[in-house]
Write a structure and sequence with these properties.
InterPro entries: DHS-like_NAD/FAD-binding_dom, ETF_a/b_N, ETF_a/FixB, ETF_alpha_N, ETF_asu_C, Rossmann-like_a/b/a_fold. The chain is of the alpha/beta class and 318 residues long. It contains seven helices and 16 strands.
Length: 318
């Protein structure tokens, strides 16, 4: 088992998170390079194991305390599982569970941890991780020359399709008796009001940033979004000022989006924002600063004044 890779599956309301499949695809690649197996820790509904065909083994811990994420319960089971299985690498998302458990598991298991990871490769048998530091302003590359390691990976770093594989993994139950005496319990899941907008499912987005100047100017961008029949999204400064509700925010502290087309206006391209939209199939950006970081990821761009460009676009569409 020394060269196996273990993925922590995440789920909510009985649905596996997309980044679980992103991690599973990368786990198959890394484990294959080492000659090991791909394993998944499924802490929750056992019926979800059938969706994890990309794994060789699924370790299922099915208990009422695991139906929703509960830090105490997850840490107990996961720590005991890695001690039993002894994988070479544990992968989890840079999400609420991952940010809670990554460091805790690393300490309990005496393993190094790479947080905010965006890429993993095996070079001459050694795992090399690339990770964001200083909120993504710098990238660190480190060779993890250790018998075991933990990596928390930013969602969207790997293609989910690589982990959505048909198959019949071996299912192994995990004992959960220790969860009958927890000191904490799950009370309720409260989701933010969306106002009927879900930017994560949109095929196209029109997004606006600080360059819009004032809240009154949002109307200009909204006209384009309406003409295209798509939602209006925004970078964090727009949300922080209360000009649009939180569900419209694209970025690390907002929503990760992968539309077929992403049109941005007045967005400079801070790392926090790029993390949320860089995987769009087509990125078209407008910013008067030719050195704006947004142009590093844009497929097409222009440096026109958005207030000159947008009315022309709306007129053409109408």
């Amino acid at each position: 088992m020394a060269d196996d890779v273990l993925v922590l599956a995440e789920h909510s309301e009985g649905v596996l998170a997309d980044h679980t499949f992103e991690l599973l695809g990368k786990a198959r690649e890394v484990a294959g390079a080492w000659g090991g197996s791909t394993r998944v820790a499924l802490l929750g509904p056992a019926q979800l194991a059938g969706e994890l065909g990309g794994a060789d083994v699924v370790h299922v811990a099915d208990h009422p305390a695991l139906s929703h994420y509960l830090p105490e319960a997850y840490e107990r089971i996961l720590t005991r599982l890695v001690e039993q299985v002894q994988p070479r690498l544990v992968l989890m998302g840079t999400s609420t569970p991952g940010m809670d458990l990554g460091a805790a598991l690393a300490v309990a298991w005496d393993a190094p941890v790479s947080a905010y990871t965006v890429d993993l490769e095996v070079e001459d048998g050694t795992l090399v991780a690339r990770a964001q530091i200083y909120a993504g302003k710098l990238m660190a590359e480190v060779a993890i020359d250790a018998p075991r390691a933990v990596c928390t990976v930013i969602a969207g770093s790997f293609p989910a399709a690589a982990g959505r594989v048909e198959g019949q993994p071996q299912v192994e139950p995990v004992a959960t008796g220790e969860l009958d005496s927890l000191r904490s319990s799950f009370t309720a899941l409260r989701l933010p009001e969306t106002g009927g907008v879900d930017i994560t499912t949109a095929d196209m987005l029109v997004s606006v940033g600080r360059g819009i100047g004032t809240q009154d100017n949002l109307e200009v961008v909204q006209e384009l979004a309406d003409a295209l029949g798509v939602p209006l999204s925004a970078s964090r400064p727009i949300i922080d000022q209360g000009w649009l509700p939180k569900p419209h925010q694209v970025g690390k502290s907002g929503q990760k989006v992968k539309p077929r087309a992403y049109l941005s206006f007045g967005i400079s391209g801070a790392p926090e924002h790029l993390e949320g939209m860089r995987n769009a199939e087509l990125i078209i950006s407008c910013n008067t600063d030719p050195q704006a970081p947004i142009f590093d990821v844009a497929h097409y761009g222009c440096t026109l004044d958005l207030f000159d460009l947008l009315p022309e676009l709306v007129e053409r569409l109408q």
